């Protein structure tokens, strides 16, 4: 089937999901309901009008200010909406019309919410992480059966257990408990793709985290004893593997075993 219609539909879906993720990112750390009250200005309390709630366009129409009290609205809101749409389209381009696509779209949405919450409050809420396990199972198990690849599930389960053990050991040296809980979820999705993806996703998280930490230390944005959330790097490493595990592992294999002519 043509890919273009899928990308358009997924892009629009990403905008809508991104709008909801803004609510998740704001309310979950505060233990607030995701349903009640409806979208409203946190400064004046007035409800957001439906036409102002259109992803990205609503913020542009309001010129980044509340329609009632003119309080500035953070640019992060449209950026989350647009970023979710872009990531959704990238995932759809990666998996195409496949049974696995919904599982990785869900992971993309969860990744955006968790990364920003971790950056905000240095916490990966159980309210998001724990329900993601049964959702992942509900999406990936049928995909494996329908594609005739039950081995993907076995790899995913083994990778989930392996990453749990790795992060459980690292927790003895200060790794956060939220990171330990997130690791098996990423292992499940990376194991589905193959052991190369597990290696790239795991090592990529530590390489990205180390590089960013080094830059922050150089510019003195953090100190040597500062706490830095690691969840965003775990998620970034996972999606690096989703999109580029094969070329990265091929490149590395070429370094170890150069071609002979």
TrEMBL record:
<dbReference type="InterPro" id="IPR050882">
    <property type="entry name" value="Prepilin_peptidase/N-MTase"/>
</dbReference>
<keyword id="KW-0472">Membrane</keyword>
<feature type="transmembrane region" description="Helical">
    <location>
        <begin position="193"/>
        <end position="218"/>
    </location>
</feature>
<dbReference type="InterPro" id="IPR000045">
    <property type="entry name" value="Prepilin_IV_endopep_pep"/>
</dbReference>
<keyword id="KW-1133">Transmembrane helix</keyword>
<feature type="domain" description="Prepilin type IV endopeptidase peptidase">
    <location>
        <begin position="106"/>
        <end position="213"/>
    </location>
</feature>
<feature type="transmembrane region" description="Helical">
    <location>
        <begin position="103"/>
        <end position="121"/>
    </location>
</feature>
<dbReference type="GO" id="GO:0008168">
    <property type="term" value="F:methyltransferase activity"/>
</dbReference>
<keyword id="KW-0808">Transferase</keyword>
<dbReference type="Pfam" id="PF01478">
    <property type="entry name" value="Peptidase_A24"/>
</dbReference>
<dbReference type="GO" id="GO:0032259">
    <property type="term" value="P:methylation"/>
</dbReference>
<dbReference type="GO" id="GO:0004190">
    <property type="term" value="F:aspartic-type endopeptidase activity"/>
</dbReference>
<keyword id="KW-1003">Cell membrane</keyword>
<keyword id="KW-0812">Transmembrane</keyword>
<feature type="transmembrane region" description="Helical">
    <location>
        <begin position="152"/>
        <end position="173"/>
    </location>
</feature>
<keyword id="KW-0489">Methyltransferase</keyword>
<comment type="similarity">
    <text>Belongs to the peptidase A24 family.</text>
</comment>
<feature type="domain" description="Prepilin peptidase A24 N-terminal">
    <location>
        <begin position="12"/>
        <end position="95"/>
    </location>
</feature>
<feature type="transmembrane region" description="Helical">
    <location>
        <begin position="230"/>
        <end position="248"/>
    </location>
</feature>
<dbReference type="Pfam" id="PF06750">
    <property type="entry name" value="A24_N_bact"/>
</dbReference>
<dbReference type="InterPro" id="IPR010627">
    <property type="entry name" value="Prepilin_pept_A24_N"/>
</dbReference>
<dbReference type="GO" id="GO:0006465">
    <property type="term" value="P:signal peptide processing"/>
</dbReference>
<protein>
    <submittedName>
        <fullName>Leader peptidase (Prepilin peptidase)/N-methyltransferase</fullName>
    </submittedName>
</protein>
<dbReference type="GO" id="GO:0005886">
    <property type="term" value="C:plasma membrane"/>
</dbReference>
<feature type="transmembrane region" description="Helical">
    <location>
        <begin position="6"/>
        <end position="25"/>
    </location>
</feature>
């Amino acid at each position: 089937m043509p890919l273009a219609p899928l990308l358009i539909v997924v892009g629009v879906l990403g905008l809508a999901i991104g709008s909801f993720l803004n609510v998740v990112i704001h309310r979950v750390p505060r233990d607030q309901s995701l349903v009640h009250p409806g979208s409203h200005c946190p400064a004046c309390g007035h409800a957001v009008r439906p036409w102002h709630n259109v992803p990205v366009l609503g913020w542009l129409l309001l010129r980044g200010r509340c329609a009632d009290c003119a309080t500035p609205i953070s640019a992060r809101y449209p950026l989350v909406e647009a970023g979710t749409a872009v990531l959704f389209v990238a995932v759809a381009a990666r998996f195409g019309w496949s049974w696995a696509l919904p599982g990785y779209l869900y992971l993309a949405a969860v990744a955006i919410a968790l990364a920003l919450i971790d950056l905000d409050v240095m916490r990966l809420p159980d309210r998001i992480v724990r329900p993601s396990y049964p959702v992942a199972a509900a999406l990936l198990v049928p995909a494996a059966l329908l594609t005739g690849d039950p081995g993907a599930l076995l790899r995913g389960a083994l990778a989930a257990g392996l990453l749990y053990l790795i992060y459980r050991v690292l927790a003895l040296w200060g790794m956060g408990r939220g990171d330990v809980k997130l690791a098996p979820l990423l292992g499940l999705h990376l194991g589905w793709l193959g052991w190369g993806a597990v290696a790239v996703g795991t090592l990529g998280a530590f390489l990205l985290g180390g590089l960013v930490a080094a830059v922050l230390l150089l510019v003195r944005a953090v100190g040597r004893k500062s706490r830095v959330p690691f969840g965003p790097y775990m998620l970034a490493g996972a999606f690096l593997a989703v999109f580029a595990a094969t070329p990265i592992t091929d490149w590395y294999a070429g370094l170890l075993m150069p071609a002979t002519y």
